[in-house]
């Protein structure tokens, strides 16, 4: 085995002969016959294959493939993979959907969190995603965020673990049942514990913590404020759901006497360290506020369509300079979690709302990579360039989905039906090879997952 330096233990990886390599670098280069060379999970060279070192510890020949930066998922609730297509929640809007599912979710166990997180991550990895956030906001029966973080480490996904929370139950005018809310002091103590135990702020970090009260309709104003203060003291990001649909807006006006825009501005929930999910009903003041303050948005088109929440003004946000990334959202409101497919839906949905020129395929791909990286506050993922993380995925251009579109394989990725990846590399490690996840025994995970799902629904 050549090219490993015995002296330093450097592990090298060579990706070569891609039909086209999409860099998403400053010049948006698309390199025919391209490749890249990585050392210890960091990209050292990118360019035509002939200009790269001839070999490495691991060599991936990508002849017949398109290679792109790993996609970034900015919003998810992975435990919901256990409750897809639940009959009573199939045709409801947000609040009715939540009230149907809360009692089922109240039976979730730590093992269920771990297995559903592995299932969700495997599905995301097979769809081209290499970095994901997950927003876990209910902790019944001894569940903790450690269960999610353990799962991410086992499967090898780059992970932003959002410590969600709910503190205002039904009896206090909130939406969730009282049995699913926590004491605010406990939430803050556990947040501090998790940051101390796991948060790695450095470049190429595989685990970061995020503080994420679930939504304005399930936590108090005080918890929003205290979470922001703690996050800023510890240097971690903030995340929540905002302005998801018209009922959400009505709740905000009635309960706080403010629009969601006014509410987050009043609480200090704006800035480059904050991103909000959905923002379907964000008003113009909100768009300009977010642009001015560097506040990010997780756009979740499938979920917005599934729950009939509306069409987020992504064209307007992008034109104003708002950072927008994609999110598949929880698996109970987007019963598929294909991130490349989500880019396709983002493009199509903007066109439904704002005309055929509202979003191009290449812009959708940019939102799915660079956009997501910016929203998560990272400068080391989202592009294939020197000194970026070796998070790389490849799709087989011989797949039936691309037949007839090979004159523009980059556009084909977004226009055509989304296939699964052939290869995925995260942090320099091959986690999908020949279309199979290498890090967990997926059939065994799925069998356990489906047994848990049955157990939750049958009771
Ligand atoms: Zn969500």
From TrEMBL:
Gene3D superfamilies found in the cross-reference section: Metal-dependent hydrolases (3.20.20.140), Urease, subunit C, domain 1 (2.30.40.10)
E.C. designation(s): 3.5.4.32
GO molecular function terms attached to this record: 8-oxoguanine deaminase activity; deaminase activity; metal ion binding
Keywords (A to Z) from UniProt: Hydrolase, Metal-binding, Zinc
All residue ranges annotated as the Amidohydrolase-related domain in the record: 66-431
Top EC class of this enzyme: hydrolase
Family stated for the protein in its record: Belongs to the metallo-dependent hydrolases superfamily. ATZ/TRZ family.
Protein name: 8-oxoguanine deaminase
């Amino acid at each position: 085995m050549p090219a490993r330096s015995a002296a330093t233990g450097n592990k090298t990886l060579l990706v070569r002969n891609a039909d086209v390599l999409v860099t998403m670098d400053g010049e948006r280069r698309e390199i025919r016959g391209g490749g890249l060379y990585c050392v210890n999970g960091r990209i050292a060279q990118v360019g035509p294959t002939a200009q790269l070192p001839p070999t490495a510890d691991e060599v991936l020949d990508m002849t017949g493939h398109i290679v792109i930066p790993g996609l970034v998922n900015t919003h998810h609730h992975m435990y919901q993979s256990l409750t897809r297509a639940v009959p009573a929640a199939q045709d409801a809007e947000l609040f009715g959907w939540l009230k149907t599912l809360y009692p089922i979710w109240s039976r979730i166990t730590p093992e269920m969190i771990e297995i559903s997180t592995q299932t969700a991550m495997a599905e995301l990895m097979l769809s081209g995603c290499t970095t994901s956030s997950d927003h876990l906001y209910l902790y019944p029966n001894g569940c903790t965020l450690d269960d999610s973080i353990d799962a991410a480490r086992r499967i090898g996904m780059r992970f932003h673990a959002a410590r969600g929370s709910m503190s205002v139950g039904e009896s206090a005018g909130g939406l969730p049942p009282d049995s699913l809310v926590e004491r605010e002091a406990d939430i803050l103590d556990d947040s501090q514990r998790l940051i101390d135990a796991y948060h790695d702020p450095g470049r190429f970090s595989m685990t970061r913590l995020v503080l994420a009260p679930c939504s304005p309709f399930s936590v108090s104003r005080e918890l929003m404020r205290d979470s922001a203060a703690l996050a800023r003291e510890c240097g971690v990001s903030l995340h929540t759901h905002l302005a998801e649909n018209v009922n959400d807006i009505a709740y905000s006006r009635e309960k706080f006497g403010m629009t969601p825009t006014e509410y987050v501005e009043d609480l200090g929930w704006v800035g480059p360290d904050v991103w909000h999910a959905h923002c379907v009903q964000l008003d113009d003041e909100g768009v300009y506020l977010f642009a001015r303050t560097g506040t990010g948005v997780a756009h979740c088109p499938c979920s917005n369509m599934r729950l009939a929440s509306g069409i987020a003004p992504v064209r307007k946000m992008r034109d104003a300079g708002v950072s927008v990334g994609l999110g598949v959202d929880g698996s109970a409101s987007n019963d598929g979690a294909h991130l490349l497919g989500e880019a396709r839906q983002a493009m199509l949905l903007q066109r439904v709302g704002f005309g055929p020129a509202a979003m191009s395929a290449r812009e959708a791909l940019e939102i799915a990579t660079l956009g997501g990286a910016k929203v998560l506050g990272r400068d080391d993922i989202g592009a294939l360039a020197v000194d970026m993380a070796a998070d790389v995925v490849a799709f087989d251009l011989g797949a039936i989905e691309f037949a007839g579109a090979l004159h523009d394989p980059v556009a084909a990725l977004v226009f055509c039906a989304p296939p699964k990846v052939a290869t995925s590399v995260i942090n320099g490690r091959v986690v999908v090879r020949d279309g199979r996840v290498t890090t967990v025994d997926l059939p065994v995970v799925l069998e356990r997952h489906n047994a848990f799902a049955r157990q939750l629904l049958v009771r």
